[in-house]
Design goal:
Pfam families: CUB (PF00431), F5_F8_type_C (PF00754). 1% of the residues lie in helices and 40% in strands. The protein has 590 residues and is mainly β.
Length: 590
């Protein structure tokens, strides 16, 4: 709704920023507890006030003394746009903004979710793109009017790949989780032509002998210029980050000064396995002088904020690079690392820093039976994540999601005992399980203090089909419960594979941990049992005020039949916390 107050008169006094006598308060909701949009007095009418939801709360206060003429107002109620959310399950299709190719409507909140079957990949290619542009780009407020967000998973749950606006066409985007989601938001002002994008699913070719050494796309251009940034660039504009592509024919990247504080960075968009880096120097086109990096350090991150230097043992790994300006030198990474963001930080150089490079590796899911089972994407609801205890009793078990969570799971005891605390995932149905990814925890309530940066160094794994009878994964040599190597810091994920097991429940038992205690996020890797066919259904709803997304979650039809009444329209309905199976006003358990 829109509220306009053309006249306002009151007896007033303002002291140190406080309104003392007569005033009008306007709250963005249906009570005084809602966010305060404004507090007004005097005879100057405020600008039009726009709510973010269906209600505005207006409070008028006057004292016993002076009287004024009061106020009058006019309100307008407008529709928040059509029900524009859709799900896509066909092998290929077109996703367009509402009304395309005409201008999109105002006040939209749309979710488009592409659901990918097992053993398939999906890519999204934008054909046209024209959204209201942010006139002040380059800061945290980028795209604050109309925007399109792309998520590697369910909206608001999986990692955000990017937020886009303006007329620059986003790059081709792929999902690593089996769910690719688009969230489209428009405000009440400027409307543009919108967007059109085509998605395509392809069968994934997997082999037990696959090689995790594919170029990620710096040389080919698959990685776009927007995905490459640097700490600085040389002042003349001829040595930019986009020129840091392997075998690029026009100079390279050079920072503003030759210093080991400088770096160049690539956003891979999704979590990937990094196995190698090829580097190359450059010959200046202007002076014919040679420049190249002789050694460098590697830094990795899952979120672009928390950076970890790659280590060899306890020390930072120094990679030996080039001996001339043109030769390509390939460095294999001794222990492949999981990362979305990659930084190269030159340590030594000849004549000056100049760098062209390529990154090599693969998707986590390129290995056989290594599909992410829904922790990262949000496909598994919070109700299927449990633990022995939780320090933050008001927190959500969603904190235990790999990468997607900003914090992590912390057990309640400040001095836990090895083997007594556990973190558990219910996969919904029995699955073939072949691996696990663990990650440390950033801290409670977004804390960044060092004492809250916790991780698990070693752990045991148990599995079950019933949730009652548990079996440890054993060491083939000793026959005892296997001790898995965990994490060495709170951000970099660690992947551990093992011989396949059939399980519905997976439990992690921490055995050793960091000085800050136990902190963990995780994902399970596996695949459907042969001949099994689980149905995937997703429905989305966006509440305008809280911007909360509500989803159906994948489970087998048989399991749903056992839990919930079929005498409903729609036939399946479920409610636990903020996750429901289908929108229905008469949800009832059997």
């Amino acid at each position: 709704s829109i509220l306009k107050i053309p006249q306002l008169q009151s007896g007033y006094s303002i002291l140190n920023g406080f309104f003392l006598y007569d005033y009008v308060e306007i709250h963005d909701g249906n009570s005084e507890s809602a966010d305060l949009l404004g507090k007004h007095c005097s005879n100057i009418a405020p600008a039009p006030i726009i709510s973010s939801g269906p209600s505005l709360h207006i409070k008028f206060v006057s004292d016993y003394a002076h009287q004024g003429a009061g106020f009058s107002l006019r309100y307008e109620i407008f529709k928040t746009g059509s029900d524009c959310s859709r799900n896509f399950t066909s092998p290929s299709g077109l996703i367009e903004s509402p009304g395309f190719p005409d201008k999109y409507p105002h006040n939209l909140e749309c979710s488009f979710i592409i659901i990918v079957p097992s053993s398939m990949d999906v890519s999204l290619t934008f054909l046209t793109f024209d959204l209201e542009n942010d006139p002040l780009p380059g800061g945290e407020g980028d795209c604050k009017y109309d925007w399109l967000e792309v998520w590697d998973g369910l909206p608001g749950v999986g990692p955000l790949i990017g937020r886009y606006c303006g007329t620059r066409v986003p790059p081709e985007i792929q999902s690593s989780t089996g769910i690719l989601s688009l969230s489209f938001h428009t405000d009440m002002a400027v409307a543009k032509d919108g967007f059109s994008a085509r998605y395509n699913m392809t069968h994934k070719e997997v082999s037990e002998t696959f090689h995790c050494s594919n170029p990620f796309g710096l040389e080919s251009g698959k990685i776009t210029d927007d995905q490459i940034i640097a700490s600085s660039s040389f002042y003349d504009g001829h040595w930019l980050p986009r020129q840091a592509r392997l075998n690029y024919n026009d100079n390279a990247w050079t920072p503003s000064e030759d210093s080991n504080r400088e770096y160049i960075q690539v956003d891979l968009h999704t979590l990937k396995v990094l196995t190698g880096i090829a580097t190359q120097g450059a010959i200046s086109k202007e002076t014919q002088k040679t420049y190249y990096v002789t050694t460098f350090k590697l830094e990795v991150s899952t979120n672009g904020e928390d950076w970890m230097v790659y280590r060899h043992g306890k020390n930072h790994k120094i990679f030996h690079a080039n001996a001339d300006a043109t030769e390509v030198v390939l460095n294999r990474i001794p222990q492949p690392v999981l990362a979305r963001f990659v930084r190269i930080r030159p340590q030594t150089w000849k004549n000056g820093i100049a760098l062209r490079f390529e990154l090599y590796g693969c998707q986590i899911t390129d290995a056989p039976c290594s599909e992410l089972q829904g922790m990262l994407s949000g496909l598994l609801p919070d109700s299927q994540i449990s633990a022995s205890s939780m320090r933050d009793i008001h927190g959500s078990m969603g904190a235990a999601r790999l990468v997607a969570s900003r914090s992590g799971w912390f057990p309640n005891p400040t001095q836990p005992i090895a083997g007594e605390e556990w973190l558990q995932v219910d996969l919904g149905v029995p699955k073939t399980v072949r691996g696990i990814i663990t990650q440390g925890a950033r801290g409670l309530e977004g804390s960044t203090s060092a004492e809250n940066r916790a991780f698990v160094r070693k752990y045991k794994l148990a599995h079950s089909l019933t949730g009652k009878d548990w079996t440890y994964i054993t060491d083939s040599k000793t026959g005892l419960a296997k001790i898995f190597e965990g994490n060495s810091n709170y951000d970099t994920p660690e992947l551990r594979r093992f011989d396949e097991i059939v399980a519905q429940y997976i439990r992690v038992f921490p055995e050793r941990w960091s000085p800050a205690g136990i902190g963990m996020r995780m994902e399970v890797l596996g695949c459907d049992l042969p001949g099994e066919n689980t149905h995937t259904h997703t429905h989305t709803h966006t509440h305008t005020h809280t911007h909360t997304h509500i989803f159906m979650i994948r489970e087998s039809v048989a399991k749903v039949d056992n839990l919930y009444s079929k005498n409903l329209n729609p036939s399946y309905c479920r409610s636990d916390n903020n996750i429901i199976r289908l929108m229905s006003s008469n949800c009832s358990k059997v």
